[in-house]
Amino acid sequence: MHLPFVLPSVGSICQSFSRASPIVSQDGTIPRSKYAAREELYTAFSTADDAKNKANQLGDAAAAEFNKASNAAQAKTGQIEMFSPKYYAACTFGGLMACGVTHTAVTPLDLVKCRRQVDSKLYKGNFEAWGKIGRAEGIRGVFTGWSPTFFGYSVQGAVKYGAYEYFKKFYGDLAGEENAKKYKTSLYLIASASAEFFADIGLCPFEAVKVRMQTTMPPFARSTFGGISTITAAEGVSGLYKGLYPLWGRQIPYTMMKFASFETVVEMIYARMAKPKSQYGKGTQTAVSFTGGYIAGILCAIVSHPADVMVSKLNANRQPGEAFGGAMGRIYKDIGFMGLWNGLPVRIVMIGTLTGLQWMIYDSFKIFMGITTTGSAPSAEQKVEGAVQGAVDDLKKKL
Q: Which of 79, 169, 173, 393 has the most beta carbons within 10 angstroms of its beta carbon?
């Protein structure tokens, strides 16, 4: 006798016991308990699940489209080698995208900040300011100065990011590989200062128009190039650059802090993560870029704020033919030391958000073009050294 004829089949076992099961009914469904809550009372949960599923589907579709467009762009441009002309061109365009759009988006904040720097008693707060401006000038008035902001910071961002990548490599080669690693923070500071020096020359004419548009009521001009024509007709080309020295005084320390602190913060974040930077996906790397950028932006706002106030005052109140030093002395006498910090809380929020978004957009574009994101990750040896040093410090505390 063969065993298959002696032992019951799987089907017969299921048929014998399924109907007698207290859990599964004859049609295969699980019967409802009398103690279970009614589903119609909890529709929010199913709605939330549906929304979550749709969001995931949209996210997947967006990621697929991003990858498709990225592959097409990389196929068209070819492989971009580090520190090649294509690399610097991509970084320049990424900087243009990162700065022009983000600065334009926060024009309403910048408008209130500039007006309060010129007259601290004009508005008590942002919402009061936007309400007054909106009632008097409409939504267009709330965005006064958006056009010179877009043009100026697009030029500045393109030069700043592209030149920073260039000078970082240039000074690194001059210092040598060993010194470049040993004094990397100094390298970041020098490279960013050099880049910002040239970037501000392109920004200054547009900044002059923007500040005058935002601090004169009604605005002295309705368009960017109309404002440039008005200034040059009355004061010559030098009128567009009378705020260049304080602009350097504001932007160079700002950019030095922005790039050096960002590189340092990003390295610290990756040092505390479980895996190497290269093993994380696009989303994680851009999230790290945003976090590092936001922290860097807060530090930038504090360092550069006194010069920012002085730029606004000089562009609004400097008399034709007045010496730079004399104008600064007169303004400082009027506002005092505390006056240099007018509008700082607003600027911290604005610059923190701006800087975080700029680094996120910039690194997203680098990913799009197949380039490594900004910010070095610590090597395996550095991680081991850090872990050993941490263990030694803990042991010393216990002893």
A: 169
Per-residue buried b or exposed e for 249-277, using 16+ beta carbons within 10 Å of the residue's own CB: bbbbbbbbbbbbbbbbbbbebbeeeeeeb
Torsion-angle region of residue 2: left (phi > 0), alpha (psi -120 to 50) or beta?
A: beta
Residue 223 DSSP code:
S
User: Which residue matches tokens 């109140």?
Assistant: 317
Q: Per-residue DSSP letters for 37-90?
A: PPGGGGHHHHHHHHHHHHHHHHHHHHHHHHHHHHHHHHHHH----TTSHHHHHH
- Using the 8-state DSSP alphabet, how is residue 9 labeled? P
Q: What percent of the chain has pLDDT over 90?
A: 41
Average model confidence (pLDDT) for the chain?
A: 83
Summarised one tens digit per residue, pLDDT across range 197-215 is: 999 999 999 999 998 999 8
Residue range 295-299: mean pLDDT, rounded:
92
The Cα-based distances of 65 to 34, 60, 72 in angstroms read: 48, 9, 11
Rounded Cα–Cα distance for residues 370 and 380 (Å): 24
Secondary structure of residue 19 in the 3-state scheme: coil
Q: Which residue's entry shows tokens 């030095």?
A: 256
Backbone angles phi, psi at 126, to 5 degrees: -65, -45
The structure's pTM equals 0.74
Q: CB of 179 within 8 A of CB of 172? A: no
Q: Is the peptide bond before 85 cis (omega within 30 degrees of 0)?
A: no
Rounded Cα distance between 262 and 349, Å, is 17
